[in-house]
């Protein structure tokens, strides 16, 4: 048994921390090695596996010898984390110090090593999340330094290195550099704008990474993943000792070592497994040799791509922390021992990390100025000056913009003040705001102002419509809509009333619910009918209109409340029905019929209800189903309608006379019974289905009514704000009002452009369907009536972005096995959509059009999959509005929006104000995709 040697942080080697002549500081230290023991997983628990390991203290783990013959030797590490330990603690004590050295110019690497399913990915996700948070906090707290963060990521899959940000560009090569070691050729690097951007990139890598199911792990990582953050920082002001650092932080999630016998691997998985094991074996050999302390001997870094890339982190210029993850299960004891043995070797490896001071090179060059070096320094300075000039320009532009926005806000505030006094009730505001809407989403002052301006854009819209007669017209239109809604509701409620009234009495509870429902329906009929004469005023007197309208305000709110009550009663009825059905299962068929809440007698009414103009059911097919389902078969002698009557009314209805008028007892009729009882059962099933379906359709209908009432409510309130601010302005009649009128059309136009840009950016960040983007983009071009659609789209997207970032923030443990699943699902869906659109390139574009587009979009002739290449380039640059416009036009052609010649309806972009987070899973923009059969 290999026993570990004590290696607490204090005993850790800090042999020298000295300054080199060039000014770089050197830190020689051993690799920080920790062990994390996870809890038994579901699989292990199901197999009644035993816990084979004990964490004796914060540094010691020991095998629990089941035979208790003799105590096993303990393994001692820098830290040992038990099964209940949080990832936060693992980060604080096992990675933070090393990770943050990248901020001070020292390369750092954190990696997780362990057998498959031991928790490497689980741990590295949390480590990355925490490190990112701390890095941004540090940057914020260090304003005297300027930081540039770059992100790149790769995976090594079956010994092939792939760029995770540019998977499409194929395998990347490794280049050897005498000074810097192994470099990954042309690895795509993105400059990080902020924490959200970084999370977004990490999400992309997760979605792109090779993952597969094995017998030990449903989501086993089949590749080694390296996320690299390059951090450059320099002092903002020149001082005596100008320092410029540059270092990388590597976050490495290795694939897990595995045994084919345990993972039941074959085919692809077996091949992956053997590559994984081979590269891990090289890693183990490198570590073992390094731990021997003889650096002079041959270290086989070059035997695998993993060790080539990580060379500087293994005994080189980097601070390194290794978190070894292990399973506690007895069935994995051998694998756990291997991991602990690897960990024991690793803690003996010494690294020599240096602070990478960029300026040191410059200073050296200045001390011995060669003409060429001097020239390059001057060029660099020139570039810097130009860049600063550009920044200055940009700052000036931003200042001007902020000033004009401030001016605008000042003017708009006045309008808003009036609107706030008599504006939407707090109840309405509550309903219309998404949760967390008031939280600051964007943190820059500019975006903050932009958001504020956007929130006021609805108000502004009111000020642009200065013609009172137009406003009165708008009020009338809405009232008309409200009246229609009331009429529709009344018609349907009448049907519903009849439906419920014809019900044959069931148990006590059902009877009571039905009576309550009937009275509720009556109640609604009273409030929802708005007398026509009160709707149409003669003169266009705004004040009168408002007073009249305000007096009606209660109507719609109470309609909504009452609809809610009806819905509750229906639900109650449905559950009572279900219970009575269950309890009657064992009773005679005749009793069963009695409990049905709706009878067949009303099938015509049901059709009426289903066909009502705002019913959510699709018209013809559903009605047909009802017709056939509910009809008594005509030519079936074995199942006369009497049988139904008999089964349904045996207690309450006297037996029917025969042809001669004589009454027959059930006994007399018994010869037909055996055959008919089968049919009776069948009929009862049909009744049951029909009744259930009826309840469902009524419930759906009521839900829809509620939604429509809500929308109407919203529109009414918008208009009310408009009218009120209009009136106020008129009363004030000051010069200021005139000034507002002059400036607003321009502001509205600007707001639209701003909103549109933000929507385009959010589409990009949230991986929204490009068909949806194209249709929306082409449909909403800045007409004032587009404002409400823009507002809704923005809200949805802002919610979605927050939702995605919340997923990113949430602890994976809270989310189960699939953190950030939705982000990856969106990326995957988008990928599939692009593939689908690529298939349409040949049929929807002529050969000439295709060639023209290939030339324009830089698709090389003779290249592979040119159609897909083209589609993959669409909607990829949210900053370039020309690119956006052209992308939308191409997608429109591929999907065929423009074929019918009719412009698409704006209504298809539903104005749904329901909060997306209320729904369990929000299906995003399914509506559009469905329409296009995507
Ligand atoms: N410390 C822990 N606490 C709770 N659950 C954990 C812990 N560690 C891992 N798990 C769970 O165990 C499962 C396997 O973890 P994970 O995928 O991280 O293993 P892995 O070592 O990366 O596997 P592979 O090498 O096959 O990719 C996951 O469902 C994960 O949520």
From TrEMBL:
Extent of the signal sequence: none
Coiled-coil residue spans: 378-412, 475-527
GO cellular component: microtubule
InterPro entries registered for this protein in UniProt: Kinesin-like_fam (IPR027640), Kinesin_motor_CS (IPR019821), Kinesin_motor_dom (IPR001752), Kinesin_motor_dom_sf (IPR036961), NACK_C (IPR021881), P-loop_NTPase (IPR027417)
One GO MF term attached to the UniProt entry: microtubule binding
Family per record: Belongs to the TRAFAC class myosin-kinesin ATPase superfamily. Kinesin family. KIN-7 subfamily.
Composition bias, Polar residues: 7-22
GO aspect biological process, one term: microtubule-based movement
Keywords attached to this entry: ATP-binding, Coiled coil, Hydrolase, Microtubule, Motor protein, Nucleotide-binding
Stated name of the protein: Kinesin-like protein
Matching SUPFAM superfamilies: P-loop containing nucleoside triphosphate hydrolases
Feature: compositional bias, Basic and acidic residues: 656-670
Binding-site residues, ATP: 114-121
Domain of life, source organism: Eukaryota
Region Disordered, residue ranges: 1-25, 632-680
Annotated Kinesin motor domain residues: 30-349
